[in-house]
Amino acid sequence: MTYCLNRKSPVAPDQSWLLRLLTKLLPCVTRPVVLKWAITQDLDVTAQLSAGVRYLDLRVAHMRDGTDRNLHFLHVVYTTALVEDTLTEIAEWLEQHPREVVILACRNFQGLSQTLHEYLVTCIRNIFGDMLCPRGEVPSLRQLWARGQQVLLSYEDEETVSRHPELWPGIPYWWGDKVKPQDLVCYLERMKSCGRPGGLFVAGTNLTETLEYVLAHPGQSLRSVTLPGLPFLGAWVRAQCPGPASRCTNIIAGDFIGATSFVSDVVGLNRKLLQC
Length: 276
Known about the structure:
GO terms for molecular function: phosphoric diester hydrolase activity. Helices cover 42% and strands 16% of the residues.
């Protein structure tokens, strides 16, 4: 959801004290820099779905001093889009594409009380209704088609999941927190060598930068740093094998998905299954 970050939004309270101090003292200088390093996608959510994305990382937050029921998404700063509006947009796209299935991962939950968790789950139920697949064994596409279910909703708050059978537990995410693509691939290969988790899990091909690097390179952006590494990461993606074996991948996530052949590379991995 970082395609719609709010330029006027405050920096999230979980960010470093130094970043929060700088944005307060020098907002005209710091905020444009922060924004460039917080944006990880250029396409809006409908365009991402139409491009073939079927896993969405939705980091939900309640803005401090914001309206009680207005939930935003968050990646360093808050989005202009509201959660309820975005979920409705996803549901409308699914109604137009009845044989497509998406995995929505609601996580982070910055500033959410249990009351707001219940409000969010009510929104989810009202918006998706019978599209939601209740938790249990991971179903096949044929099973989902037969039931008319199109949404597996992962929710990272265990207490809330325990109360609602339509929510799935948080999906494990392999996040390397690496600056260089070579280091990230080494991390992912090391994780694979330990054996895949049971059920769904995510291998993240996301590069990250430290605050010190950002402050030292204010003219750059996450996009300008990420794009040169995408061919190397793309080669790793194309070399993967899906399936249940211990070193197989499952969900693969990435940034700036419209900039390369990332989506077609991931979808293309399924042909390896068909050849088995």
